[in-house]
Structure formats: structure tokens, C-alpha cells
Design brief:
Chain lengths: ~325, ~350, ~525
């Protein structure tokens, strides 16, 4: 392979642009889980919630495009698909909240089972419903931001994307603002750090945790929907390929702060992007493989392990993460 | 008197919760019936077909037992790990690596005389799984890395690695498909009484009482359960918590690896990328459904194997996607979790 | 129910049950405005439960609550706070990663809607309240960095900030030095004079007599009586608390110390924040004596305890048991050397709630004969052993196969004691051995500790209860900021002097060292 090709601006710009784009589903899922975990609930079901969100979004967009909204504004079905993904995510979140907060079941087990439920249900429903042929949705167009997108290099990388990417930038800032500058954020964090203190201050620990889990899961579902509706424009078995689990890891890597989550996810986006580009370059080179395809695919998973190699200091983690709250037991 | 948190117990004690698996099973089947109905088939017919597909005759029962083997083996390993509160969900990956290492023995050492060959094959499988499990154990002990994430990531890595090998260095000479050469027939494990039920199945069921003895009748089992109950107390009592974690991971990895080589030898007779039907994940559910008790795990394994076979039959006959089994399994476990947690809450009221 | 127009709070026939225990059995309780009213009783008498009901954290199974003559049904703390109630709990309800200001506004509606109100405004209001009530706090400080006394002031200020007119304090002096406790009393008296009503929950007779206008005594969930403080004394209160005549001081035979058993030299240990919690401690405990370490919690006792038994790394210095160096040895090796340990945290360290009594009783020796034979556990032996111990140590449990988590605090502690003492240890480290226990359990454990001492064991006792230290110890050391700043023999010990040392007053050290000499 011609490595010189890699170190050209064109390649790098394309790499970073795609990197940002590909990072979006993971960022959204990570943001959602940060909210949930700051409130003290460990929701490991992200992979399943993304699958459900992805299928819900894709199905909604497809059915609308070919049903109610045939021929209308070509992006509305996609947007409605994203909303469907959020709702599906919120529903799964409600289930998780019920198990973890009301029933106080072991959260690790609930989460893992939720993954299997989400992935199993999605693959089953897709297999039954839509897999008869390779179907696609139209998705969304790239909307370059006027003026900003003309800036050399940076303009292309940051401002030449589909709307969900801009939405994601906004959401990173919004979640940060929510958690650290609002009274709700104070409530979420108190419930995760010292629920007794929150309880005796008059805050309903149950209600707050429910809100955090459902809100977080909605974002996770949105992440799944963005992948199927906007980026890949299709659904198939195992499409999430571990992104939900990577998001779980990224929350730790980000030390539960939204801004660091962005950096972590971008790294993954670039890793995914690198996969495709190296493959493409190999094709140019008459298909002689420099790095075996499977090893490229391994990159995100290896990266995840590397990202977690640092010992987590106790002060970063919400103190009561994963522990159910029981009022005054003797 | 303080407002105090309490660590949730995974193993509740009341008789009500003993009935939870049954309740959960029924609920799961109910929801499965709904899914079937939504897909346009008759649930009663479908379940009848499912039952007959799994238990309807000698051939069917044999198939069910054969499918139970890997699930039970991995499930027993999960039981040991979960009892120590080591969340090894890397069963898939350890299965693949066991298949790989045992598979290498099958491909290159098939000249050995038969009983020794079988022992080497099984050992290879166990070793492959153990080594793969050592990696997340090391990360947990040295870096405090959650074993949930590391074992999961290693699942993907293991699967991809095996696919790569069977597409490249280990590919069948002259072949086009990503699969290794077929194993020499001498590697086949002995079967019982002329049926297709092989040594592996026997091994799996023999391990049921052995794991029971390990957990409740040996000092090692005491140690693992103590660490799983509360590691800080185990540490106080002089138990080496890190060593216990390592042991739990290695045992569960070894069992998963054994499942891998057995399946590859008997069901596939060659190494390839598609050697698992998600047994690693079914095994987790089976360990939970069986309340992390080897006997319960055995019963649950048979049940889940029947479910999978039944779903495959329904796929053939009604065109229902085989993931139906996954969905039903997950619903069953969630129901069991819910009933358990609910009954625990009632007893604490 | 006379004087009802003066009663700012009335609780009538309150009943509250928890699984297995009747915490409040038809209790009547009333508060007059501006009084300091103490709730006195042993651990487990039901005092905290009753006040948790008043504060809205629990709902009573039956009974009525009236605040300012109006019936109320609080379903959460929020309702109670809205009615002018404030509570300072035994374990602080502060979010340690938040600042003081953030803790103050937690749960309060903000004038800026969703946005947290301007922190400058909050700081201003906190500083003002700080002035008014003469309690100094820094609103910008993060709670984890504050001392225990400061955190308590934050808790009190938090309640007042939220408009509390009725202040409930649960065992507030448990974590204070005698002199900080005196300061607290002054604050409370000032608040009462300013018109606030105060409920003071305690099991300490002296304090309760000193500060109260009236005293209500609870025993086993029942109301014993409500008396005016002026008409009570320690003896009458103790009698009401326990239900029988109580010896307020135990007598013990004089000690006959023998050879040195535990030797700690210049020990330095870091805490979880990587600060030096133990800073050069020298101690020696001899056979046949009890060395009590007095001090307010948080001065390095926990770290010292953990370092000795191998649960925390020793940075420098040496620990020897019978001349065997066990510095940085594993807990197992420390046990082999002959040191037994009664941990300060029963449930975090001492026993497995999911395991049964028999299993807990062999927790440290299950892999040794006779409990393990030919590589397998010998359950017969284990159960036999358990039945023996349960009988000789009066552990009240339905069977030896009952889960340890079901035992009461006292029985759980007796179980742990049994396990440690049956090893016939050369050295016994007992940390907070009677925390949270009722009087009869306390008496039992004290008796067994003295018995061990008389049989030649060397005992190192950690306790935050000065009374316990005085009752049991032959020699007393005071720990402050990671150092031993005073070492006296029991007859030289004086509560006041000890109190001064526990608060770090060095004047007391110099006067006692000239008397006793550091030995």
C-alpha cells in the first residue's frame, strides 16, 4: 500500500470528516448513559437499546416514506424516524428503570439481559417484517452551514454534515449545561452521589432516577436511529456491532463528563473511518491487503480496552453507582 | 439508625422465588406466543411443533441433548464465575479460542493414538479458553478494568481473529470458503450406544455434580462464594481476593473453551467463523435462570436447547426468524429477575 | 394533652413496625415551643424512628401527628421542611463532592427557574446566616475537605437556611470531642433562646441532663416517661432507660501486665486521599493489659487499625506481634502470628450477611483441619463448632444455619467475638466493639474482653466512647491527627484532661507526660 497517500490533506480531511460523522451514534449513546450513571443507575443495556432504537427509527422512516408521506418533503420521514428511535429508547429505559429502581434488581444482570432482549427482539422483528429484500431509506442530505463551511480544512471537517451531527454538537453542550448548571442537574448528581442526602432534602430519589434513566435511554435510542436512518440507511442483524458496549466503556473513559465523552467518541469515529479508508486504499492497490480486514475491524474493540487501562479514581465515579436506594433499613 | 444502602442479593431465599423460574418461563412463553401470533402463525400449533421438534422422538431428543452440551458447559462455567461476582460475559470469545486451540491440535496432531488424541483435543480447548480468560482477569486485577467490558470486547476480537485465520493461514488448501481443512475422522469423540450422543454430552452432565461439589464442598468454592458475597469481608478473613477472581475467570474460560472444541469437532468438523449460535450468551441466561445452581443450570440448559431447536423448526416450517428463541429467552430471564426482585422486596417490607 | 396551645408539635399513639421488630409501640410525644427536649434511650429504643416519622421520612402505621395544632400527614421530607422542620442526622446528609453552597440549595426551588440561582447570592445568604447564628462556614468549600465539626455546622445551618423552626438532632455529639460538644451545646442554647425548638436525641445521660428542659425516655419502642430535667438525675434516667438498676461503673481487677506482645514503631500510613493519616505512631501492648486508644473518629484510628491487620499498606515503620514482623503482611499471615481482629465495621468487614452463622464462625479457618479434610469441607465439624460457640457466647439465633444478616447487631457482634476469641489470640485488636449495641450486649462484650485480658491476652482497644475507654482500659492513649499525643495509666486519667487531648490541646499533653512518661 502506498502510505504516502495517507499523509495527504485530502485523505486526512476525509478521514476526520467521516470520523465525526461516524462518532455521532456513539456520542449520543455515551451522553445518554452519562446522565443515567450520574444519577447512580448503571444501565448496561445500551447495545440492546440502540438496536431497538435503530430498528424503530428505520421502520418508521421506511414506512412513512413509502406510505403516508410518499412524495412529500424528503427529510421529514427521517426526522420522524429519529423521534421514533428516541421513543423506543425511552420505552426500554422505562423497563430498565422499573427493574432497577422500583424492583431493585441487580443492575448488572438487568442490563445484560436487556441487551439480549433488545437485540433478539430487533433482529426477530426485522427478520419477520422487513428483511425480504434489501430495503433502504433516503435519510438526510448534507447541509453545509453557510459561510462557516467555506473555511479551508476546518470548514469541511466541522460544518459540512447532515443535521444530526450539528444536533450532536449542540447536545454535548446541552447535557453539560443540564448536569452542571441547572437545578435538575444538581438533583441528578445528588441522587447518584448520596441519595440519602437528596431524600432528606425533599427530593424523590425514585422519580429522579426514573427521569435520568428514561432520558438517557432516549438519547441512546436516538443514537441507534441516527446510525440506521441517516448514516447507513439500512438495518441488518447485528448492525450495532458493539457500539452500545463501547459507549458504556466511554462513559468511564470520559470520567462521567460530557466534554471528555466527545473526545473519546471522536477517537472511535476516526478508528471506524480509518477502517474504511485503508480498505479503500487497498482496493486502489488492486486488492492486495496490507492489514487484514479483520484486524481493521478489531480496532474499535482494542481501542476500548486501551481506553480503560487507566485506574478509575474513586472521586470521579458517582459514589452510589449501581446500588439501589433503600430508605432507612434497620 | 441510619438511612442506609444495601447491596442487592442475587440469591434470594424464599420459596416464592424458587417458583420464579417457572413463572418466568411461563411469562416468556406467553410473550413468545404473542410474537408468533403477530407474525401470522398459530401459537398453539407453533409450540406443539416446537415441543415435538425438541422431544418428539429419539432423533429429536438426541439433537436436544447435543445442543444442550455447549450451553451447559459454558453455563456451568458462568455459574462458577457469577458466584464469585465475576461477570464473565466473554463466553463466546473463550469458546472460539478453545475451538481454535483444540482445532490446531485436530489439524496438526491427529497422528496421535486415539485416547491420547482426545485428551489433547479437550486439553487444547480448555487451554485456549483459559488463556483467553486470563487477559480480562489480568486487566481487572492490575487496572481495575470492568470485566464486563473487557470480556465483551474480547468476544469480538476472538471471533474476528478466527475468521481471519480461516480465511488466511488456516484456510483449507485449494478452498475458496473461509474454513479450515476438515478434521481427520479420528478426532471424532466416541459416541454412546450407537446414537449420536457423544462423550462431550456425558462430560457436561458429569460436571454438574462436580461443580456443585466444587462450590459447596471445597475450600476453593467457599472462597469464591465469599468473594462473591462481599469481597471486603473476604479480604478481612484472609482470602486472596485477586487470586479468587483469577481462578473464577480461568475456570469459566476453560469450560467455555471445552465447549468450543467439542462443538467444532462433532458438529462442524472444521474451523470456521460460524461455529457458535450465540451459545455464550444463552449460557449467561441459563446460569441466571438456574439460580446459579448447577442442577438448575442443567435443567435450564435443556430447556433453552429445546427452545433453540424448536425455533429452528419453526423457522423451517413457518418462516419465523430463529431469533424468536433469543427474544423468548430474554423475556424469560427478565421475568425471573422481576419476580425475584419483587419477592425480595416483599420479604423486606 | 393539656397545654395544647403551647405545644408546637404533638405526636399521639405512634406505631411503626419494621420486619421482625416493633420500633415504635404507641408513643406519645409533644414539644413546647422554644424548649430543648431530649429523646433518651439505648441503641434500638426507637428514638430515631420516631423522629424520622416526624420529619416525613417514614409514615407511621397508626397514630397522628399535629404541627401547630393542625393535623399533618407528611409523605416526604419536603412536606416536613415546608412545615418548618429540620433534621441533622447521625450520618451526615451532605454530598461530599458538592460545595457547601450547592448542598444548601439542593432540593430548593430556584428563583431563576431551571438555572441554579446565582452562586454569589447564595454565598451572601449563607454568610449572613453564618453571622446570625454565630456558626462559621465557608460556602465555597467542597464538603469532603471539611472537618467533621465543620460538616455538622453545615448541616445545622442547612436546616436553618431552609427555614427550620423545629430542629431535630440525632446523636450529634457522637463524632465530636468533649469540647466541640460543649460548643455545640452553646449553639443549641442560643438557638433555643432565639425561639427555635430543639429535639436532642442521645443515649448519653450527662449531656441530656445538661442541656434539656424536658427528657422523654424510650425503651424497646415504648414510652417510659417524660420528665423535667430538673427533677431527674443520672441514676433515675439510667434506670428508666434500661428497666433495671444499672451499675454506672464497672469494677475490674487490677492488671498484671507481662511480656510485650504488640509492638508498633514509628508507623506511617496514608489514607485514601494519599494524606498521612497515621504519622509516626509508637505503641506497645503487653500481655494481660488493655490499652485503649481514645480519640474522635477521623484522627487516623481506622487507618491504624487497618494497617496493623494487613488491610492497608504501611508506608514506613514496623509492626511486630510477639517479635514476629508483620508489617505489610497479609491478613492471613497476621492471623497466623496470633492477632485476632474485631473490626469497626461489622457488615463491611466482619461478617458475610449472605452466609449462615456456621459459615461465618469458620470464616478465617475453613480451609484448615478439622474443618477441611482430604480437600473437602467437613460440614459436620463446622456445624458442631458453630453450635458450641453459639451456646457459650449466648448468640441468639434460631439455628446455626440462619443467615448472619438476620441477626440483631448485638448477636452479630457476639458471633464475631466468638469467632475471634476461640482462636485464643495472643493479641486482640477490638475496634468500636460495642458500637450501636444495647446495654446487655455491651455488658456481655465488656465482660468477655476483661476475661481475655485476665487470661493473658494483650488487647488494643479503639473506641470513640470515652466511657468505654475508661471502663476497660489499663492504659489510655489519645490519638489526634495521626499521632499519639498522650499516654496515661487508668488511675491518672481524668475525663477533662482526656477531652482536652482529644481536641488536640497540647497543654494537657505536657502535664500528663511529666506525670506518666511515654512508655
Amino acid at each position: 500500500m502506498n502510505w504516502a497517500l495517507v499523509f495527504q490533506w485530502g485523505f486526512l480531511v476525509a478521514l476526520l470528516t467521516a470520523g465525526i460523522r461516524l462518532a455521532v451514534p456513539v456520542i449520543l449513546a455515551t451522553l445518554g448513559e452519562i446522565i443515567t450513571e450520574q444519577a447512580g443507575v448503571l444501565n448496561l443495556g445500551l447495545e440492546g437499546i440502540m438496536a431497538v432504537g435503530g430498528l424503530a427509527g428505520f421502520s418508521a422512516a421506511y414506512l412513512l416514506e413509502n406510505g403516508l408521506l410518499t412524495g412529500t418533503n424528503s427529510e421529514l420521514p427521517a426526522w420522524l424516524g429519529l423521534i421514533a428511535g428516541m421513543l423506543a429508547g425511552a420505552l426500554m429505559g422505562a423497563l430498565m428503570a422499573f427493574l432497577s429502581v422500583t424492583l431493585r434488581a441487580e443492575q448488572v444482570i438487568s442490563g445484560i439481559t436487556l441487551v439480549l432482549l433488545g437485540v433478539g427482539l430487533s433482529d426477530y422483528l426485522y427478520g419477520k417484517g422487513l428483511s425480504s429484500m434489501t430495503i433502504r431509506v433516503t435519510g438526510m442530505q448534507v447541509h453545509p452551514i453557510p459561510i462557516l463551511s467555506r473555511i479551508p480544512l476546518i470548514g469541511d471537517i466541522l460544518f459540512n454534515h447532515t443535521p444530526p451531527v450539528y444536533l450532536t454538537f449542540f447536545l454535548v453542550a446541552f447535557v453539560w449545561w443540564l448536569l452542571f448548571k441547572t437545578t435538575w442537574g444538581l438533583k441528578f448528581r445528588s441522587v447518584g452521589e448520596n441519595p440519602s442526602a437528596a431524600d432528606t432534602s425533599g427530593i424523590s430519589v425514585e422519580a429522579t432516577r426514573y427521569a435520568a434513566v428514561i432520558l438517557g435511554a432516549a438519547l441512546v435510542g436516538l443514537g441507534g436511529a441516527v446510525l440506521t436512518v441517516v448514516q447507513l440507511k439500512l438495518y441488518r442483524e447485528g448492525i450495532m456491532a458493539g457500539r452500545g458496549w463501547i459507549a458504556v466503556a466511554l462513559v468511564i473513559f470520559a470520567r462521567w463528563k460530557p466534554n471528555r465523552a466527545l473526545i473519546g467518541a471522536l477517537l472511535f469515529g476516526v478508528a471506524y473511518s480509518l477502517q474504511y479508508r485503508i480498505q479503500a486504499l487497498d482496493q486502489v492497490n488492486r486488492g492486495v491487503e496490507t492489514i487484514p480486514y479483520e484486524f481493521l475491524l478489531m480496532l474499535p474493540y482494542i481501542l476500548t480496552i486501551v481506553a480503560l487501562l487507566r485506574r478509575v479514581s474513586r472521586s470521579d465515579k458517582p459514589a452510589e453507582l449501581g446500588l439501589p436506594y433503600i430508605k432507612g433499613s434497620r | 439508625m441510619t438511612v442506609r444502602e444495601q447491596k442487592p442479593r442475587i440469591i434470594p431465599l424464599k420459596l416464592i422465588s424458587a417458583g420464579a423460574p417457572v413463572l418466568g418461563g411461563l411469562l416468556g412463553l406467553l410473550i413468545g406466543a404473542f410474537l408468533i401470533w403477530v407474525s401470522g402463525a398459530n401459537p398453539f400449533e407453533a409450540y406443539l411443533v416446537m415441543f415435538k421438534g425438541a422431544f418428539g422422538g429419539q432423533r429429536q431428543i438426541t439433537e436436544t441433548l447435543l445442543k444442550t452440551c455447549p450451553i451447559l458447559l459454558i453455563g456451568l462455567g458462568m455459574t462458577v464465575a457469577f458466584r464469585a461476582r465475576v461477570w464473565n460475559i466473554g463466553g463466546e470469545g473463550q469458546y472460539f479460542m478453545g475451538a481454535l486451540m483444540g482445532g490446531l491440535v485436530a489439524l496438526y496432531l491427529s497422528g496421535l493414538p486415539q485416547p491420547i488424541l482426545w485428551i489433547c483435543l479437550l486439553l487444547g480447548g480448555v487451554l485456549g479458553g483459559m488463556l483467553w480468560a486470563l487477559i480480562p482477569a489480568f486487566f481487572k486485577i492490575r487496572f481495575g478494568m470492568s470485566e464486563i467490558i473487557s470480556t465483551l470486547m474480547l468476544n469480538y476480537i476472538a471471533t474476528l481473529f478466527v475468521i481471519y485465520l480461516t480465511r488466511g493461514p488456516l484456510q483449507e488448501p485449494g478452498g475458496v470458503l473461509p474454513t479450515s481443512a476438515q478434521f481427520n475422522p479420528v478426532t471424532q469423540l466416541p459416541t454412546l450406544f450407537g446414537t449420536r450422543v457423544h462423550l462431550g454430552v456425558l462430560l457436561a452432565f458429569v460436571l454438574v455434580p462436580l461443580v456443585y461439589v466444587l462450590l459447596w464442598k471445597t475450600p476453593l468454592g467457599f472462597r469464591l462464594r465469599a468473594v462473591g458475597s462481599r469481597a471486603s469481608v473476604a479480604q478481612y478473613a484472609g482470602i486472596n481476593v485477586n487470586r479468587a477472581i483469577l481462578t473464577a475467570m480461568v475456570i469459566s474460560g476453560g469450560l467455555a473453551g471445552m465447549a468450543g472444541i467439542i462443538e467444532v469437532l462433532m458438529t462442524h468438523t472444521r474451523l470456521k467463523g460460524s461455529i457458535s449460535g450465540g451459545y455464550g450468551f444463552s449460557a449467561i441466561l441459563v446460569a441466571l435462570l438456574g439460580r446459579m445452581n448447577p442442577i438448575g443450570v442443567a435443567i435450564a440448559s435443556v430447556f433453552f436447547a429445546a427452545l433453540i431447536i424448536g425455533a429452528e423448526t419453526m423457522h423451517v416450517l413457518y418462516g419465523l426468524p430463529p431469533q424468536l428463541a433469543d427474544a423468548i429467552q430474554a423475556v424469560i430471564i427478565l421475568s425471573v429477575l422481576a419476580v425475584d426482585a419483587w419477592s425480595r422486596m416483599r420479604s423486606e417490607k | 394533652m393539656d397545654n395544647s396551645c403551647h405545644n408546637i408539635v404533638e405526636m399521639c399513639a405512634i406505631v411503626k413496625r419494621f420486619p421482625g421488630v416493633l420500633a415504635n409501640a404507641s408513643i406519645d410525644f409533644d414539644l413546647r415551643q422554644g424548649e430543648i427536649h431530649s429523646l433518651l434511650g439505648e441503641n434500638g429504643a426507637g428514638k430515631t424512628t420516631l423522629m424520622n416519622i416526624l420529619y416525613g421520612l417514614y409514615e407511621p402505621d397508626s397514630g397522628d401527628v399535629f404541627v401547630r395544632n393542625a393535623p399533618v400527614k407528611f409523605s416526604s421530607a419536603r412536606d416536613a421542611i415546608a412545615n418548618g422542620l429540620g433534621m441533622v442526622h447521625q450520618h451526615f446528609m451532605l454530598v461530599s463532592t458538592f460545595t457547601v453552597a450547592e448542598n444548601m440549595i439542593l432540593g430548593q426551588p430556584s428563583p431563576r427557574g431551571p438555572l441554579i440561582e446565582s452562586l454569589q447570592d447564595v454565598y451572601g445568604r449563607i454568610e449572613q446566616a453564618s453571622e446570625t447564628y454565630n456558626m462559621k462556614v465557608d460556602p465555597r468549600a467542597e464538603v469532603w475537605s471539611l472537618s467533621v465539626g465543620e460538616q455538622q455546622r453545615v448541616e445545622i445551618l442547612k436546616a436553618l437556611y431552609r427555614g427550620a423552626e423545629i430542629l431535630i438532632l440525632d446523636e450529634p455529639t457522637a463524632i465530636l470531642t468533649p469540647h466541640e460538644a460543649d460548643d455545640l451545646m452553646l449553639i443549641l442554647k442560643r438557638l433555643a433562646k432565639a425561639g427555635k425548638t430543639i429535639v436532642f436525641i442521645s443515649h448519653k445521660l450527662r449531656e441530656v441532663l445538661e442541656i434539656s428542659d424536658r427528657i422523654t425516655v424510650l425503651r424497646d419502642g415504648k414510652l417510659v416517661d417524660t420528665v423535667a430535667a430538673s427533677q431527674a438525675n443520672q441514676q433515675s434516667l439510667a434506670c428508666m432507660m434500661v428497666g433495671r438498676e444499672v451499675l454506672l461503673s464497672t469494677s475490674k481487677t487490677p492488671a498484671h501486665p507481662g511480656e510485650s506482645r504488640l509492638n508498633i514503631q514509628d508507623l506511617k500510613v496514608r489514607n485514601d486521599r494519599n494524606l498521612l493519616a497515621v504519622d509516626g505512631v509508637n505503641l506497645e501492648v503487653r500481655s494481660g493489659e488493655i490499652l485503649g486508644i481514645a480519640g474522635v473518629a477521623g484522627n487516623g484510628q481506622a487507618e491504624l487499625e487497618e494497617a496493623i491487620v494487613g488491610l492497608r499498606r504501611v508506608e514506613s515503620g514496623k509492626v511486630e506481634v510477639c517479635s514476629v514482623d508483620i508489617t505489610n503482611a497479609s491478613p492471613g499471615q497476621v492471623g497466623e502470628a496470633g492477632l485476632a481482629h474485631i473490626p469497626s465495621d461489622r457488615y463491611q468487614r466482619g461478617l458475610l450477611q449472605d452466609f449462615n452463622v456456621a459459615e461465618n464462625l469458620v470464616l478465617e479457618r475453613f480451609s484448615k483441619p478439622p474443618f477441611t479434610r482430604h480437600g473437602l469441607l467437613n460440614w459436620n465439624e463446622i456445624f458442631l463448632h458453630a453450635r458450641d460457640l453459639v451456646a457459650s457466647f449466648d448468640v441468639r439465633t434460631p439455628t446455626v444455619q440462619t443467615l448472619a444478616g438476620k441477626l440483631s447487631g448485638g448477636n452479630a457482634q457476639k458471633m464475631i467475638l466468638a469467632r475471634e476469641l476461640v482462636r485464643k489470640p495472643k493479641v486482640l485488636l477490638a475496634a468500636q466493639p460495642t458500637r450501636g449495641l444495647d446495654v446487655s450486649a455491651i455488658e456481655f462484650i465488656h465482660a468477655r474482653l476483661l476475661e481475655q485480658r485476665d487470661q493473658g491476652a494483650a488487647i488494643l482497644l479503639f473506641s470513640t466512647e470515652l466511657d468505654e475507654i475508661l471502663a476497660l482500659s489499663d492504659r489510655i492513649a489519645v490519638m489526634y491527627c495521626g499521632e499519639i499525643i498522650g499516654l496515661l495509666t487508668a488511675d491518672q486519667a481524668d475525663v477533662n484532661q482526656l477531652g482536652l487531648m482529644m481536641g488536640g490541646s497540647l497543654a494537657a499533653v505536657s502535664s500528663s507526660t511529666t506525670q506518666a512518661g511515654m512508655q
